[in-house]
Each structure stands twice: as C-alpha cells, then as structure tokens.
C-alpha cells in the first residue's frame, strides 16, 4: 500500500508543472528593434526649364536641364548633424566655346557643400561651405540659414561669396512657405525676396528678385516608401539694375522630378 501511495505522489509531482501551465501560452521573447541608422540622405532627380541662380537666369532660354542632387546627413546627437552634398547641372546647350563651358560630357557645373545644422526647439541653424565648379572656375562661398518650424515656415538665408578669383558679395534671402494637402496630393507655395550688395550680379546693390511658386507632390511608393514625385512652377520678378544680365526681367521656371529619401 505504501508503494502505491509513493508511486501516486511521484506521478503527481511529475505532472504538476504541466497542470500548472496548462492552457497558458508563453510569449516568445521580443526581438529587439534594429537601431535607426545615424546616416540618412536624399537623392533628387529633377528637370528644370531654367537654371536660376539667386534670380540670375544662367542660360537665358527655356530648355530641358537635368539637375540631380544628393545630400547625406550624419546624426551626431538628436539636435546636431553633419551635412555633405552635391548638385549638378547637366544639359546639351550649345555654347560659343563648349570645351570651356563643360566639365565632362554635358556636365556644365558641379557644386559640392559640407557643414552642419543644429536644432533648438523650433529653430534650425545651418552653416555650409560651398564650392561651385564650372567653366574652369571654382566659386567658393559660405552660407548661414535660420529656419523656424512655425506658421508660414519663415527662413533667412545669407550667402557670402568669397573673394577667391571673384568679387566678393553678399545675398540675403527672406523666405516663406505655406504647405497643405488635398487627399494624397501635397501642395507647397514658397515665396522669397532677396537683397544683395553691389557687384554680386555685376549690378548695383538693392532688392534683386522676388519669387512665388506652386509645387504639387504625390507619393511614389513603387520606388520606395518615402519617395515622392513633384511638379511645379516658380515665377521670378527681377530688378535689372541689380541683376542686369537677365534677357527678361520676369520669367517662369518649370520643374518636375523625383525625391527619394533614405
């Protein structure tokens, strides 16, 4: 009899863990989320009808210009990041001396920049050093931009051309932008006005240009999750005393392209 009780007790002890957890599922350990990359960027593949540089119509005609750009950002802290980027002007415009105007096959200009940005509350401060390489020359400049993430997104850009083979000069651009969406379409209305010192565009000092644009963007998820396709137009009104090189004081620039953040 004692042996029977002992066997029963032993069986109960063996079965106890199974009975205690019967009907209870044990969730597998959660897989830790992959850390977000500290390096991000954006690739833009844009086409423009004009190359407009601070109100100056560079090629003086309506044409199909390819303007690809790439910018990389390296996050140092949540508020501070380093910036490295490049922008190209690619076209088949015939010139009097094509060899002097071209860097390579149809590549007329290559710009590069590096610097950093720091965000404090709703304000972002960005400082860049730039080199614009074209026609056998290397134009150098430094820029400071202050942007506020508030109503109308006001910004102030100060561009200082260095006296490295060029007459130094300064341009200040005040910008505003209104964004809104209608269904899947995002709209942006940017406006800007510039003031510059004498000589930057080989003219006098004063108000250089005013501009107003409209851009519409739609998601292009067939390319990537955050990619967008956009099309827009920007109108420019320029001051011929400050920017005397334009063949027309007032003109439009049409643009379209893809933006692919990563």
Give a verbal description of the structure.
The protein is mainly β and 262 residues long. It is built from 2 helices and 14 strands, in the order H-E-E-E-E-E-H-E-E-E-E-E-E-E-E-E. The protein has helices at 2-20, 98-101, and strands at 39-48, 52-53, 56-57, 65-75, 80-90, 107-120, 123-134, 137-148, 155-161, 169-182, 185-196, 206-219, 228-238, 250-261. Strands 1-4-5-6-7-8-9-10-11-12-13-14 form a 12-stranded antiparallel barrel. Strand 2 and strand 3 form a beta hairpin. It is globular, with a radius of gyration of 29 Å. 13% of the residues are buried. Mean pLDDT is 87; it is low at 1-27.
Question: Which key features would you list for this structure?
Answer:
12-stranded antiparallel beta barrel, 262 residues, 2 helices, globular, disordered N terminus, mainly beta
């Amino acid at each position: 009899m004692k042996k029977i009780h002992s066997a029963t007790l032993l069986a109960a002890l063996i079965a106890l863990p199974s009975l205690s957890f019967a009907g209870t599922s044990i969730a597998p350990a959660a897989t830790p989320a992959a850390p977000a990359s500290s390096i991000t960027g954006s690739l833009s593949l844009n086409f423009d009808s004009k190359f407009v540089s601070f109100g100056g119509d560079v090629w003086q005609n309506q044409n199909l210009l390819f303007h690809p750009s790439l910018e990389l950002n390296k996050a140092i802290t949540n508020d501070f990041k380093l910036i490295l980027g490049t922008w190209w002007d690619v076209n088949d415009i015939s010139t009097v001396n094509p060899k002097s105007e071209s860097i390579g096959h149809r590549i007329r200009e290559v710009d590069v920049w590096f610097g950093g940005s720091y965000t404090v509350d709703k304000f972002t401060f960005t400082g860049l050093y730039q080199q614009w390489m074209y026609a056998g020359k290397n134009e150098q400049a430094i820029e400071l931009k202050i942007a506020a993430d508030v109503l109308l997104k006001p910004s102030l850009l100060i561009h200082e051309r260095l006296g490295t083979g060029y007459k130094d000069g300064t341009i200040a651009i005040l910008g505003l932008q209104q964004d809104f969406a209608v269904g899947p379409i995002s709209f942006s209305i940017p406006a800007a006005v510039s003031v510059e010192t004498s000589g930057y565009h080989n003219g006098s000092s004063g108000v250089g240009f005013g501009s107003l644009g409209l851009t519409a963007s739609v998601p292009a998820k067939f390319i990537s999750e955050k990619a967008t396709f956009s099309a827009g137009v920007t109108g420019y009104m320029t001051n011929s005393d400050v920017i005397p090189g334009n063949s027309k004081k007032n003109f439009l620039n049409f643009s379209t392209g893809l933006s692919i953040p990563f």
